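Quick illustration, no need to memorize.
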Amino acid sequence: MSGLSSFSLAGKNALVTGAGRGLGAAMARGLAEAGGRVALVSRSEAELTATATEIGASAVAIPADVSDPSTYAGLLDRAEDELGGPIDIVLHAAGVQRRASAEDVTIDDWNTVITTNLTAPYFLSQEVARRQLATGRAGSHIFVGSLTSHLSVSGISAYTASKSGIYGVLRAFSTEWSSRGIRANGIGPGYIRTELTRALIDDPERGPRLLDRIPMGRLGSPEDMAGAAVFLASDASSYISGQLLMVDGGWSAS
């Protein structure tokens, strides 16, 4: 497969967490527009239903809390049943944030952030990969990192730890699974206007300083992530594994 046809996801089944809104919803739409069938996963049934309705017949909504690894086998069984086949692509977009200075982070805040942002993607990918490896099926596992996978930002130390860990996880999975047909990569968003970043972006002092730091001179939108997701999910990236593709308006390169 070559040229634009290599970006097609026709015949592929994808599972996207955090798909009810924001980055997850935008990337799920992108995968569907590229021809894939998509299982949308989030805790909010109302948001999922709205996103699935917007996408249309190629999407199914599966309400679930990905912070509980004991549910993964059942979640995948349901996704495979509703999509009509095994999962080819898993995209981990579920994430949480807790803002506090490092000396004020509580153990509950730490556990919430690490469980959702790092532990859940690790073990959900593990369950998907076990099924793919058992059948010799190729796969693409896509993780959502951050600017903080590479650098630190004040006030979000637990989040920084989780996203630094995600970069390590995708490299480790790539090393172990690439020779058996499973690629592991990540997308590193910069500052994207979502509910997670609204308070920071709308702050009258911090917001303008943030914008000045971005070489492209604008904030990102969730839709800016869709092309990267399609690329990493498709055969267009067939020789790419273990990489974190930064989609940050040039921040990390400046």
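The radius of gyration is 17 Å.
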